[in-house]
Amino acid sequence: MQAAQHWNVLARDLSNKINNELIRSDFLETAIYVKTTCGDDSEPCSKEKTTEFNEGFRDLLITELVNYGIPTSSLPDREAITVNYKVQVVHHQTN
After folding, report:
1. Residue 42 CB neighbours (<10 A)
2. What is the pTM of this model?
3. Average pLDDT in the 3-8 region?
């Protein structure tokens, strides 16, 4: 994904899918916690290991969830549904 607009399209699409699943499962009032990870779901991503894309995408995802009216949590919570995601930077040559 080369532009921030592409990142936002992906975040909006993922938020839509999460919203649809929350509706289907009747969890509309349950908060979502978006966990920052670097490929290992067992522990959070440290500042030294994260990427600008990872941080930016997480922020966009949370914003899009809020835009759908989905409650979010800034901290892990036993009551919240945790969303894990993984990003991978792929370098390519431009034409």
Report:
1. 5
2. 0.81
3. 80
